[in-house]
Amino acid sequence: MNTATVLPMLDPRLVGEHWENYEGTSSFGVFWRATRLNHLHRRDLRSFLHLSLRAGDDAFARLTRGIPQQAALRFSFPKSEFIEKSYWRPEEWWPFGGPMPFEQMSWRLRVCPVCARSCYHSLLFQMPGVVCCPWHGVALIDACPKCESPLAVDVQRDLPVGRCRCGHDLVDYVASVVGEATVRGHKHTAIEDHLQRAASSRGRTWLIAPEEFDDRAWTALHWFGNSSQKTGTLLSERVELDHSVRFTSSRVGPKSGLESAQPSLVALPLEWFVAFQRIGAQLLAMVPREHLPTLVGPASDMRRAFGQLPAFPGSREMYLSTEVLDRSVLRCAGLLAAIVANSTGRRTLVQPGLRQRIWDNTHGLRLVDALVRRILTRGYADGLRVALGRHVPALYDAQHHRPVRRLPWVLLDLPEGELPSARIGWTRQRGTF
Ligand SMILES: [Zn+2]
Ligand SMILES: [Zn+2]
Question: What is the superkingdom listed in this entry's lineage (predicted)?
Answer without folding.
Answer: Bacteria
